[in-house]
Amino acid sequence: MGSPLASWPWASLGSYKYLLYGPLVAKVAHAWRETGSLPLDSWCLHLLLLLVLRSLTFQLWFSYGNMLFFTRRRRVVKDGVDFRQIDAEWDWDNMVILQTLIAAMVANSPAFPGVAELRAWDPRGWALALLLHVTVSEPAFYWAHRALHRGPLFSLYHAKHHSSPVTQPLTAGFGTPLEALILTAAVGAPLAGAFAAGAGSVSLVYGHVLLFDYLRCMGYSNVEVISHRAFAAVPALRYLIYTPTYLSLHHREKDCNFCLFMPLYDALGGTINSRSWELQKEVDQGMNDRVPDFVFLAHVVDVVSSMHVPFGFRSCSSLPFSTRLVLLPLWPVAFAFMVLQWFFSKTFTVSFYFLRGRLHQTWSVPRYGFQYFIPSAKKGINRQIELAILRADKMGVKVISLAALNKNEALNGGGTLFVSNHPNLRVRVVHGNTLTAAVILNEIPSNVKEVFLTGATSKLGRAIALYLCRKKIRVLMLTVSTERFLKIQREAPAESQHYLVQVTKYQAAQSCKTWIVGKWLSPREQRWAPAGTHFHQFVVPPIIGFRRDCTYGKLAAMRLPKDVQGLGSCEYTMDRGVVHACHAGGVVHCLEGWDHHEVGAIDVDRIDVVWKAALKHGLTPA
């Protein structure tokens, strides 16, 4: 058996742990049915409402802390939160469950008669709770916290909490039952005192608990939110309220800054880190902000997938995108944000990670997939992309890679428009299609002698056809434009041109089991494929697998090297650690230090060069 209070008793329940709230819900439902109205005089109801508000407090602070377009310059620890930390903190709300259950037992126990009366407001209780917090909760937590950092107590009960390298609001709830009980005592002592004195009230419970959570989330947010000017104007203030920088120093160094919220007790105990205020000033002024080496310029796919952003819900962004019914009620909110972005937003930072000392960021153009096909929107979208490139150039970014529709041939010639308009760009503009082509080509089995290619005259289709015909593989190119087909065929070596064959109907591929899809296929079009066909894809969005007797490949993608750091969100439908091939192409461009742009048509001769460079740097096929 493990140490007592070192593990959660409901750890094996998974998501079923929320059934622990069942008795509270049942009691409220019973009272509602009995009285015919919402039982506002029931503590069970108020505890459930408080649970919702507490969860919302943690979620809002989490969202704010991950809104890099607001907070990037004031992040205390520059590292990112990786998947390991996310998984470790997945059940951060165990603390909230425990506190809710304890509160329910107290509220329904005859041993605490003072709690039975539900008074809405009593100013005496607020004053008494403040006094008890300062004189009881703060010093008690300080000494308990110091004790947890000594000897076996740390390894048994507190090391798990400190295993998170980067604090975030959800880290505030991550720990063992013993730590949760200490926090429960800290938040509960002032309330117990107020109710024992007959001055407790419902408003005090809501206000005190939510303020407690607010300050905890603020401290763990990893974003400096208190101006250093406030401390300069009122020096005594620094002993009355801690800061995210103050707590981050404790979390990293573990031998200082033990207080709950008031550094006064660290001062009295001689445990204040002398760098607390100097570092807080540096962070507040954005002095340790860093220019990214590489930027992946993405765009939003649709309204539903927009809720997959890292500053939304961690349980969504840290897993491959899928439609979740639980998020459908938020669709109107997401739609409203889409409208606001159309009129007011500009390119913003979404996520980041580090690779071999280089900072890689993902920026997003505030446009959605369908908007790229509105003729009147073309100019505005290109202007957004152009401004992002110029911003990256001004900052000193080395490589910027264009995602999906941002490099659409009809939109800007695969990025050629921007390089032509700004010939003196220092940032290298990359469409990443060379590596995309390489990924698709290396998926094709070596024994294949014939392929069927749709989207055959696109940039990628052209490159794939020219590469395969050199390998003496017959390519059935689906296109109704004989002119475009002949233009591509003439680019092939004379001895390979006969391997390129124009077809105008899907029926021509009835005996071909290797389909390379660059154009969306309907169920009717897919039915022409013979049983056992494998569909390779470079179409966005990917086709839907209607055929059970066929197999479907994912979009071209590569897994980032194992030494990537701080990666904690999935790129659309990609698995963890996997990025789209055009993203990976920009990464390779940056790691290799190539000084040329990669825009417009794909250089077929460079496909193998880019592929070998990707493998050399540890990127692997997904």
Write the layout of secondary structure elements.
Elements: H1 22-35, H2 43-65, H3 68-71, H4 83-88, H5 94-107, H6 123-148, H7 151-162, H8 177-196, H9 202-220, H10 228-233, H11 244-253, H12 264-269, H13 276-284, E1 294-300, H14 314-317, H15 331-344, E2 348-355, E3 358-368, H16 378-395, E4 399-402, H17 409-412, H18 416-421, E5 428-430, H19 433-443, E6 450-453, H20 459-470, E7 474-478, H21 482-491, E8 500-503, E9 514-517, H22 523-526, E10 534-537, E11 551-555, E12 557-559, E13 578-580, H23 581-592, H24 607-616, E14 620-621
Parallel strand pairs: 1-3, 1-4, 4-5, 6-7, 6-9, 7-8, 9-10, 10-11
Antiparallel strand pairs: 2-3, 12-13, 12-14
Helix pairs in contact: 1-2, 2-5, 2-9, 5-8, 6-8, 11-13, 19-20, 19-23, 19-24
Keywords: Endoplasmic reticulum, Lyase, Membrane, NADP, Transmembrane, Transmembrane helix
GO molecular function: aldehyde oxygenase (deformylating) activity
Catalytic activity: a long-chain fatty aldehyde + 2 NADPH + O2 + H(+) = a long-chain alkane + formate + 2 NADP(+) + H2O
How would you explain this protein's 3D organization?
There is one protein chain. The protein has 622 residues and is α/β, with parallel strands linked by helices. It contains 24 helices and 14 strands. The strands form three sheets. The chain has a six-stranded parallel sheet, covered by helices on one side. The chain is elongated, with a radius of gyration of 29 Å. The two termini are 41 Å apart. The mean pLDDT is 95. It is found in: Endoplasmic reticulum membrane. Belongs to the sterol desaturase family.
